[in-house]
Amino acid sequence: MKHSRISRIIHILTTMQAGKSYAVSDLSKMFGTSRRTIFRDLKELLTIGVPYRYDPDTGGYIIEPEFFLPPVALDLKEALSLLLLAHKVGDQIQLPFTKSALLAALKIENNLPPNIRRYCNAALRNISARAGAQAAFDRPGGLDAVFTQLQNALTRKCKVNIRYHSLAERKVIDVELSPYHLFYNQRAWYVLGHSSMHKSIRTFKLNRIKALQITDKRFTDGEKFDPQQHFGRAWSMIPEGQLYDIKLLFLPKVAQNVAEVRWHSTQQVTFNDDGSATIEFRVDGLGEITWWILGYGDQVQVLAPRALRKRVLDIAENMISLNEKV
Question: According to the model, what pLDDT value does residue 72 have?
Fold first, then answer.
């Protein structure tokens, strides 16, 4: 949801709170938009729990008098930081309970002192955020439904039965899972837990869960589970059980951009006289970092280990072969 729409919804809310009923045509003229857009905005208010109703005597809409938004005492920095999250980041990444987040933003903005509200609105017009591509989530109920079920199961320490589209097995599998931890990584949400099928701790991507049911079976083995310890020194989230000393040479064109990002906890950077950068890591596994290296194309050279250099070469040769056939 873009900031302009959120701002309009907030203004519709504060306008209707004045106690007067407004027809859709009135709101349409007031906010310079179509009747269809106003109907969408009114539906959004209803979805997030604002109890308005249609008054047949006046032909307009009015908010129930018992509805109120409690005061929120925030200073300028607190207000702006929260509104940045709600308006500029919340619609860029997958977050559960976005409707609740919108209502929270409405409460915050509606109760800010006028001078702080004006400053925040002006500041937000000149700020934007752009996150990476997000994994599609087309299951009924969306992220909220799956996240809520897993969170409930995790809190109650109940096992769940999931039907899961596994890319590794290349088929849909049925798994009894003891959920230990929910986490977001780069583009999607995941659940970590003990899989009865694999007899080990596995990671499952939430948007690949086709069906989920909480069972009456309890688990106790996840009490001391530490996700940081589980991931260890994996490049991202898939440890492979073997540590490698990685040494890469990034050419001057990309060296500064690569070096200024903290990609891994073991990262060490050495800038060379020609503007290139030698970057070293100690990483568990080669699979994930291989694809990251390939993203820099002809601007990076694998100095060590030899096994990683061979992987990159094999994939590059396959890319050439595949594209020469077109």
Answer: 56
Q: What is the pLDDT of residues 116-171, one digit of tens each?
A: 878 887 887 888 777 777 777 777 678 888 999 999 999 899 999 999 999 988 89
Say whether 232 sits in a helix, a strand or coil: coil
What CATH architecture is 1-131?
Answer: Orthogonal Bundle (1.10)
Which segment of 87-101, 128-142, 251-265, 282-296 scores lowest on mean pLDDT? Answer: 87-101
DSSP string, 234-287: BSSS---S-EEEEEEEE-HHHHHHHHTS--STT-EEEE-TTS-EEEEEEEE-SH
**Which SS3 state, helix, strand or coil, does residue 213 take?**
strand
The answer to whether the beta carbons of residues 263 and 212 sit under 8 Å apart is no
Buried b (16+ CB within 10 A) or exposed e, 225-255: eeeeeebeebbbeebeeeebebbbbbbeeeb
The secondary element (H helix, E strand) that includes residue 116 is helix 114-125
For residue 131, the model assigns a pLDDT of 74
Q: How many residues does the chain have?
A: 326
If you compute the radius of gyration of the chain from its CA atoms, what whole number of angstroms results?
26
Q: For the chain, what are the domain ranges?
A: 1-131, 142-219, 243-324
CATH number for the domain formed by residue range(s) 142-219: 2.30.30
Task: Classify domain 243-324 at the CATH class level.
Answer: alpha beta
Distances (CA, A) of 117 to 5, 65, 100: 16, 24, 21
Burial class of residue 130 (count of CB atoms within 10 Å of its CB; 0-12, 13-18, 19+): exposed
pTM score: 0.70
DSSP SS3 for 195: strand
The pLDDT of residue 141? 72
At 288-319, the pLDDT tens digits run 999 999 999 999 999 999 999 999 999 999 99
Beta strands 200-205 and 209-218 are unpaired
